[in-house]
Structures are given as structure tokens and as C-alpha cells.
Amino acid sequence: MNCSKAAAEKKNTFRHFLTREKTEPLLTMLSSLIISFCIIAALLLLTGYNPVFVFSTLFTGAFVGEVNISETLLSATPLMLLGLAVAFSFKASLLNIGVEGQMIVGALAAGAVGIYLKNMPAFLHVTLSLSAGMAAGALWAFLPGYLKAKRGSHEVIITVMMNYISFRVSAYLLNGPLKAPGANIAASPRILPTARLPILITGTRLSIGILFALLTAAILWYMFRYTKYGYGVEAVGLNAHAAEYSGIKIDRTIITSMLISGAIAGLAGGVEILGLHYRVYDQFSPGYGFESIAVALVGGGSPLGVVLSGLLFGALKAGSVNMQTVAGTSKDLVKIIQAIIIFFAVAGFSFKNLLAGLRRKFKAQEAVLPGGE
After folding, report:
1. How does DSSP assign 55-90, residue by residue?
2. Which residue in 189, 257, 273, 323 has its CB near the most CB atoms, within 10 A?
3. Is 30 helix (H, G, I), strand (E, B) or coil?
4. For residues 135 and 217, what is the distance between their CA atoms, to the nearest angstrom?
5. Cβ contacts of 107 within 8 Å, gap of 6 or more
6. Which candidate, 265, 3, 31, places its Cα nearest to that of 130?
7. Each residue of 254-280: pLDDT tens digit?
8. Could you tell me if 257 and 88 are in contact, meaning their C-beta atoms sit under 8 angstroms apart?
9. Could you give the CA distance from residue 130 to residue 209 in angstroms, rounded to a whole number?
């Protein structure tokens, strides 16, 4: 009797785990990673590499030693912030493809304040610089949000167009008004020391920017879990007509969602300039904005998932150098790994549908059987 009772309890525990909707993003992410690395291991074997050795060199280059860990976190910081920006727009059923452009204008604004505002205390200077970056990113996202809310224009088309405009604006400013005197490249003067983010780990390049990414994730988690506004954003994303019927203002929610998403992207630009480059370069981003869409997808759109996903992609970037040097793999292997992970993350939505079916099945059984046994 005791054995059968214990087995029944384990079965009910498993059912409860599957029927919890909040476990879906975690299960999707884990299943995508497991399948991806199995596929990658098979490809490595077929090409004559030892997958255990290759993965160990990747792990060593990303997580063994203070410098390697700091480089992983450094690479992960912009991906986390931009991934959170994209994920926030996902919640309102919007696709903010324009985070790359919003990051660029945020970097320009933060850099300008960091260069030209002088004789200020460090805390105030950093605060104003980052605030300028967030404001610029939000303003850059306002037009797509407004056109979506008021005119029904597709936000993907508008944000892509805004990206190209930001590229041209950046090139003009950094080859003209913002160009450093005597510079032979398109770059601004160096920002003042008072505007630079403090280094988090002495002897490394890692600044406190990573803390801004983690704080942003915590704020978004709290917002969606405990605030009326967060509930409204999710309601609009799930069913706009039902949300409107319940009294939520759809237009305002769409516009503010894009503003917040743009502000987070602008913060990412400010953190990159104030915490790493110390000046604004033309095309300083290697495509973080577009990679962040993958980060948001792999992370399941949840703040915690995006942080873990950003850490994963940061580790791939930081560990790839050691993997190429020690294991002798191609520099393109990391991009192949990323592509496979992204593919199975997108395919993971099918897995989520399977879980939804299991939930319905188990709940139906529990409704029929007394006590859910």
C-alpha cells in the first residue's frame, strides 16, 4: 500500500509540474539546449573532433578564471539588456526589431552627455548620461509604437526602417559634429572620467553594467508579476479585444510598451559606451540588436530566461577564442552552434503546445477522478 501511495504521489507531483504554466519557458529552454548540443556533438564526431574536448575548451574559455568569467559577463551584458527589450515588446504581442537602432541613438545621446557636460560629480554625470541614453532610445521607439497604435502600421516594417535611419544618423554625426578632432576614424572624443562606469572586478574590463542588466530583469519580473500595468501589457498581448472589453486602453499600452522597450535598448547603448568603449564608434555594435531577438526567443520571453539565455550566448562568444586556439575548431563553429540553438528554441514552441495538451489531459482526468487520483 505504501509503495502504491508513494507512486501515486510521485505521479501527481509530475502532473503538477507539467500543469504549471510558469515551468514551460524553463522546460522549453532546457530541451532546446539538450537537443542542440546532442546535434552539435554528432556533427563534431562526423568532422573528426572529440565533442567532449571541444565543449570542455569552450567551457574553460568562458568560466574558468576571473578574466574569462568577466569576459563572459561583459559579452552577455548588452545581449541581456537588448533581449529584455525585445522580450518586453513580445509581452504586448509586438516585435521590436528596432532595438539595434534604439541602442545606437542611446549610445550617441549617452556619449554626448558624457563628453560635453563637465565639472559634475561622477554619480550625477553617470546618471544623466544613462538617462539621456534611455530617453533617446524611448523617443526612437515612440514613432513605431504610435503608428502601430493609431494607424495600424506594422511595427516590424517601421522599426526596420528606423534602424537604417539610425545607422545614417550615427555615420553623419561621427564623421561630422561629434567626430574627435584629428581622428582618422568615425569616432567621438573620449567621454570624461566622471561619466565612466566603475569597474566591477579589478584587473578586468567588466563594469557595473552587468548589474544594470540584472536589475532591469528584476524590475520587469516584478512588474509582470505584481503590477496592474504588467497585467495589462500581458492581457493586450494575449487578447487585445478581451483586454479592451475589460477596460484596458489598448493604444496607450502599445505606445508605452514600445517606449519602455526602447528605453531598455537605449540603456544598453549607454552601458556599452560608458562601461566599455569610453567613446562612440560608428558601427560599434557587431549586431547585438539582431542577436538579441534570438536571446529573447531562447529565453522564452521571461526575464529570468533572457538572463540565462544572454549568459549562454555571452559564454559562446567569450569561450570561442579558447575553443579555436586549443581545440583547433573553425571560427564559424560558434555561429553554427548559435544557429542550431535558435532553430530548436523556435521549434520549442511546438513542445510548449505539447505541454499545453498534457495540461488539458491531466486537468480533465483530475476533474473526472475524485481527489485527482
Report:
1. HHHHHHHHHSSHHHHHHHHHHHHHHHHHHHHHHHHH
2. 273
3. helix
4. 19
5. 133, 269, 270, 272, 273, 280, 284
6. 265
7. 999 999 999 999 999 999 999 999 999
8. yes
9. 11
Which distant-in-sequence residues (6+ apart) come within 8 Å of 17 by Cβ? 23
**CB atoms < 10 A from the CB of 173, how many?**
19
| 319/296 Cα distance (integer angstroms) | 21
Predicted confidence at residue 215, as pLDDT, reads 97
Q: Where are the alpha helices (DSSP H) in 302-332?
A: 303-322
* Residue 265 to residue 133: CA distance in whole angstroms: 9
Helix 303-322 vs helix 333-368: crossing angle, to nearest 10: 150
The domains of the chain are located at: 32-39+51-364
* Alpha helices for 92-227 (secondary structure H): 99-116, 122-151, 155-175, 209-226
Pick from 283, 280, 286: which is nearest to 178 by CA?
280
Q: Which tens digits make up the pLDDT trace of 157-194?
A: 999 999 999 999 999 999 999 999 988 899 999 999 99
Backbone angle region of 152, left / alpha / beta, with phi > 0 → left and psi within -120 to 50 → alpha: left
Domain 32-39+51-364 falls under CATH 1.20.120: no
Q: At what angle do helices 155-175 and 122-151 cross, to 10 degrees?
A: 140
Residue 43 main-chain phi, psi, to 5 deg: -65, -40
10 Å Cβ neighbour count for 131? 17
User: Cβ neighbours of residue 143 under 8 Å, at least 6 residues apart?
Assistant: 158, 162
| DSSP letter (8 states) at residue 195 | G
Find the Cα–Cα–Cα–Cα dihedral 302, 308, 311, 315, rounded to 10°. -130
Q: In the chain, pLDDT over 90 holds for what percent of residues?
A: 55
> What nine digits make up the cell of 239?
487578447
Query: Dihedral through CA 270, CA 273, CA 278, CA 284, nearest 10?
Result: -160
Question: How many Å apart are CA 94 and CA 155, to the nearest integer?
Answer: 7
Residue 187's beta-bridge partner residues? 281
Which residue type sits at 31? Answer: S
Which contiguous run of DSSP H or E holds residue 193? none
The helix/strand/coil state of 330 is coil
Q: Which residue has the cell 576614424?
A: 185
